[in-house]
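Hey, resending since the last one bounced:
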Amino acid sequence: MPLNVYLSGEIHTNWREQIIEGAQGLDVTFNSAVTDHGASDDCGVAILGSEPDKYWHDRKGALVNAIRTRKGIEDADVVVVRFGDKYKQWNAAFDAGYAAALGKSLIILHGPDIDHPLKEVDAAALAVAKDPRQVVEILRYVLTGALPG
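The structure tokens again:
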């Protein structure tokens, strides 16, 4: 049974690479938002034309990025959403809510220092992992039935 996994959330650490590397050999396809921060921020104006007002600049980018995000989440069997501790990731919270509303299997990934602010997001998930290794082990178990060891 192959899995299509969408990786959403913070782009400032290598958590995606850790999961992808750890899942080598498993029947998993990974998709993600654009993780180049500059490209993500500026895609709307680069494609559709400049905006003198930062609000409209950001809005154009958000709408263009939403095409990829919606498609990735809608096609996913499992959505993993990573919350880092450095920035408030409102977009990650939105992705988690969208995935939950679509009935997607949702894994939330974050450290214990933000358990409290994410309690509602965590409650919508089927699993809350503390590190990328745990996400890999969940995927391995789902695909093979094998426990870590």
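Helices lie at 15-22, 37-48, 54-75, 90-101, 119-123, 132-144.

Sorry for the duplicate.
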